[in-house]
Amino acid sequence: MSAVGIALVAFVAVTAVATVLVRDVLSAIIIFGAYSLGMALFYTLLLAPDVGLTEAAIGAGVTTILLLVTIAKTTRPIGDRVLASINWPAAVVVGVLAVLIGSTVPYIPTDNFTGGLTPVIANPNVTGYYLEMTYADTGVTNAVTAVLAAYRGFDTFGEAVVVFAAGVAVLVVLHTEVFS
Amino acid sequence: MLETAFLTTAAVLVVLAIAVLYRAIKGPTMQDRVIAVNVLGTNTVVILALLAVALDSPSFLDIALVYALLNFLLAVAISKFTVKRGEVI
Hints:
heterodimer, A: mainly alpha, 7 helices, B: mainly alpha, flat
């Protein structure tokens, strides 16, 4: 990993831990914005600029504002301490989980990322068909868009219906509830 | 050679971002934190531009532009929240 990557790992780790430990919620939201900046840089460094762009718009932009609107209903903690006290049993459990997940990282096949000759694909036949025939079948140049909107169009339509129904349900509940 | 120089500069800027993080966590006032995150955002824009040159992919500059816009939005939203708590939008 390059020097930029190592420095970014340190930055993201520090912001993630600080987000958990800071007592004031507003401070946590601000530091979480910084975490989002680091993650977007990471995605860009790993040559996934589209994911980085999404992280910039959703993570740093929309999420921060939604969280700010939400904490308007809360009150600030009393006292001058910056960091919260650590719940050690929970911290140990989280640490063990992180080490367990981290120990699987070396076993991820890396042929795909280092330009090996045999790409790691779950269903090579299906994926190969999509990549070769997408333009001939659908006339869409982006393979991902073609799969989502053409090959699995009904699936995507169903997802849209579910999300729409959930939104309508939330609106109905919010409008009938009386806050006293 | 030049790529290495740009990547090294980006790495140094990320290390400096970690230093700015001290102010974002310690505070003590909320204004300190807002300014710290603003500096981090500007830092990010510069790092993205450096990466765009070093990795020879001009499309990264688009992300840098989005960041420059979002950075402004973020600072305004948080500032408005702290001045008049609860009225973000």
